[in-house]
Amino acid sequence: VRTKEPNARFVSLVRVTVVTRKPIPPFVGTFDEFFDRHADEMVSLARLITGSVESAEEIAQDAFTVVYQRWDSVRDPVPYLRSTVINRSRSHVRRVVVGREKLRSIPHDVQEVALAEPDLALRRALSTLNERQRTAVVLRFWADWSETQIASELGCRNGTVKSLLSRSLEQLRKAVDQ
Amino acid sequence: MIDLESNLRRVLAEDAAVPRTFTLDDVRNGHVAHVADAKGLRGRAVMAGLAAAALVGVGIWTVARQGDNRVITDASTSSSPTTSEPVATSSASGTPRARFFLPARLPEGLYPSMASIGSPIEDRPPLNGTPVAGLRELRSVSDRSETTLRVVTGSFVLDDPALAPVTIHGAPGRADARRAVWTEKGFTFALLTTSSAEFGADARARAEAVMVGATLESIVLPPDGRAIPTASPDDWYFSASYGPDTAGMWFSVSSYNPGDGLLPSEGAVERQVNGHQANVFSMADRTLVSWEIAPGVHAVLSGSFDAQVALDTAAGFREVDDAEVKKLFGSNYYRNDVPTPVPAAPVPKALIGRLPSDREVVSLYEMVGQHTIGYDSLTHDGGMIGGSARPVVHFQDDRLLVAAYVSESDDVVEVVANDVVVGQISGRATPSDTLIAYGTVKMSMDQWATQVVKVRLVNDRLGTSSWLFDLSGFTP
């Protein structure tokens, strides 16, 4: 990691940090070691994207199963695993949205529950983000991924990620302030 | 922005701290929980009315346990669901069984994997490194499409006691396993679940009904045919449920034993069902009938269904016609040639208390939605037994329903209104030897609205008391 300071005159105004990451070498080890090292992380990642502990477990386990089946053929299992978890989590969220929209059309008598929980507003606001926004937010603010990494994962440009995060934060802020 | 971002990081970090329950062995044995894609289900299901949010489907759980030296044959014959032919039968010699028929009106295509019934698991990774000759899959059905449904059915038998319990998808504690019922002592279980958890708590009651059907009576014979150790009759499960749809079907069968009984409301009466003692309960909008299908084993039917039913008799299975069913089950039974509106599955007006940890509230919210699908989730075997250990409350029809796992047989859950105990619910054992306190406390809307209602767990013997819920401030 290398940090480059810009012209000193502008340091007080803006701090530019250029981060270059060394390529991470492919994982070397047994599947057991691989599992031990990444299992909890993958459950957490899926949980944050899906919002569901149970689904996260299932997604993570399924992802490991997929990697396990292809252990001999996958060159670097870590990014493969992460992408699998992220993609499946996003699919899960999309399914949930579809389900909610369909069920919303059913007239039913449900009353909202007021919960006196300080972070509830933020958590609820998080759940209103679409899967793309939510994934970006989780990768940025939990996994500490760079915008470049997120862009690579989501298959978009850096600027798109920047915009995605900005809009997401704005949406969260509005929801929390309400 | 800084506050928001820091809060966001903190909340994400808190939420990320979730326990992982699956293990490396589970991953290696991932195929045990084989889920077969249901080709084309999505389109058909959507066409069948899912897009219109019609709650169409049939869900069946079956958990069967073999008895002593019983010759139990592989179940599972299937036929078109559009007919009234049985979709699953068993021919257990000398073992009374009930047999159920799927309604004839269910849209074609909602049974995508009937053909998979009876397909054995082959070339599966061994469990714990040990080949499992007795592992057999009866069926596996799933819609993994982008529809709202995800239905998984499966039943397996393990002929080696040392291998049970085995973790599978849909096993208790997993996302789509809340409805699963199994016997830890037994080696056969079957389940059908939905991903209703995905729908959000406010829709769970309806999601509950969105189940696509499979079969009933999964009885398995280990390939080598040797006897399987016997558990007590109380472990014998028999469970199934049909969900209601817009056409007005409701049909439910569940396990029953005295210790894990339904909520017997006032005026339970007794009747005879084909010579078996039957108990009829009025509960909510339906009548529940239980009867003994084997010594110590009861099946439970809820009224208001539209399915043909066959009951076992000494001479074997016998289909029961409408008139007889009406006679047996009472006036709540009706058969819908013309779709008749049936009250939808109760939608929970979820009333959720605080858990000790704020972080848990959201997950509690999810859980409550999943478990408070009217009374059924709790009174039938699926909800609590296979579910979370967290307590649940649910207010409906002037009753506060409380359910909580307890650790002592003499634990009591008390409902307190304005510091006065208005109801006590004792813990009782479930078939899986879990202690659950669940029951209802009558409470008027006025009482609810004007008084401070709390729920606590007390044990006089131990002199302990702890609050489970503080429901003040929540309105039904």
Q: In short, what is this structure?
A:
The complex is a heterodimer of chains A (178) and B (476). With 178 residues, chain A is mainly alpha-helical. Chain A has helices at residues 8-11, 31-50, 53-69, 77-104, 120-128, 131-141, 147-154, 158-177.
- If you average the pLDDT of chain A, what whole number results? 74
Radius of gyration of chain B: 22 Å
Oligomer: heterodimer
The total strand number of chain A stands at 0
Helical/strand content category of chain A = mainly alpha
Order of SSEs of chain A, N→C?
HHHHHHHH
The unreliable regions of chain B are 31-320, 328-390
Give a written overview of the molecule.
Chain A is built from eight helices and no strands. Chain A is mostly helical and 178 residues long. The longest helix of chain A has 28 residues. Chain B is globular and about 60 Å long.
Descriptive keywords:
heterodimer, A: 178 residues, mainly alpha, 66% helix, disordered N terminus, B: 476 residues, alpha+beta, 7-stranded antiparallel sheet
Topology:
The complex is a heterodimer of chains A (178) and B (476).
Chain A: H1 8-11, H2 31-50, H3 53-69, H4 77-104, H5 120-128, H6 131-141, H7 147-154, H8 158-177
Helix pairs in contact in A: 2-3, 2-4, 2-6, 3-4, 5-8, 6-8, 7-8
Chain B: H1 2-16, H2 24-28, H3 41-50, E1 58-59, E2 99-100, E3 136-141, E4 151-157, E5 188-194, H4 204-209, E6 240-242, E7 251-256, E8 269-273, E9 276-283, E10 286-294, E11 297-302, E12 309-313, E13 316-320, H5 322-329, H6 360-371, H7 376-379, E14 392-396, E15 399-405, E16 412-417, E17 420-429, E18 435-442, H8 445-450, E19 453-459, E20 464-470
Antiparallel strand pairs in B: 1-6, 2-12, 3-4, 4-5, 6-7, 7-11, 8-9, 9-10, 10-11, 12-13, 14-15, 15-18, 16-17, 16-19, 17-18, 19-20
